[in-house]
Amino acid sequence: VRLVESGGGVVQPGGSLTLSCATSGFRFDELMMSWFRGRAPEAVEVVARINADGTTSYSPSATGRFIISRSNANSTLYLHMTDLQPEDTDTYSCNSAIRPFNPWGQGTQVRVSS
């Protein structure tokens, strides 16, 4: 299994970023997938998740600002983040929502600063 996150960076408050997670080695199209934030794997929280059928759910802080999506054809997960705030600063990782694979990917860092 391989999970490769990208798309992070430094943005000003109110800015936007789109994160990507390229995956391989498992049946991506069959699994619920999540974006997590924090130090993986021991200290993560769910930011958003998407079922195999495309149904989504979000943490309270992500609701209304972030959109999770997936391309089953490309086995890739996305997180479009808008109206970013300093409290969104963290490392973001993707993984299977129910039984995360080990090892996790390296994550991608998001820093929101003026």
Q: Can you characterise this structure?
A:
This protein is mostly beta strands and 114 residues long. It has no helices and ten strands. The chain has strands at 2-6, 9-11, 17-24, 33-39, 43-50, 56-58, 66-71, 76-81, 90-96, 108-112. The mean pLDDT is 97.
Q: Which shape, going by the Cα principal axes?
A: globular
> What is the subunit arrangement here?
single chain
| Cα radius of gyration in angstroms | 13 Å
The mean pLDDT is 97
Detail the poorly predicted runs.
none
| SS summary, helix count | 0
Main sheet record:
6 strands, mixed
Sequence of strands across the biggest β-sheet: 2-10-9-4-5-6
| Strand fraction | over 45%
The end-to-end span amounts to 37 Å
SSE pattern? EEEEEEEEEE
Q: How would you classify the helix and strand content by structural class?
A: mainly beta
Count the strands? 10
Work out the helicity level.
under 10%
